[in-house]
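Moderator note: this is an archived Q&A kept for reference. The question asked for a predicted structure of one protein chain; the sequence and the answer are reproduced below.
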Amino acid sequence: MQCAAHPSVETELACGKCGTPICPRCLYHTPVGARCRSCANIRRLPTYQISAGYLLRGLAAALAAGAALGAVWGVLLPFGAFFFYGLLVGLGLGYGVGEAVSAATNRKAGPPLQVIAAIGVVVAYLVRSAILASTLRDVAVRDLLMEDIFGYIVVILGVAVAIGRVR
């Protein structure tokens, strides 16, 4: 017998469903045996199939959650004097944004949603920085963004947690 996809290859293996001759390069292992490509019915998991509508819902949730959590962060812990509490803020921020994106997209997952969740955490940081700049009239937003090491650590931690929620 010759393989249906590779006529130059001899084989004794056939698809368990349709009987088409297949070579070891063409076979797909399934729970019921070796199958050809058409009978294996290979498709992506529904969890990772993300349409444009889901991406927009995820983006809206990330922006809303990021803005709300950033405002809370700016009011409750404005200066980062308490490093331990700042780390807790980063964990909570990432969890909140990631969970909002996950819930808005029907628990879908994948790299595009990871980027959207990270954007939500960065939005939270920018909202917090804007609140700090409005309370500190002598400090420009640019100066605040350039010298805020504590904020960067919190954002990195928050992004890592948010990505983990939609992985």
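Archived answer notes: The mean pLDDT is 88.
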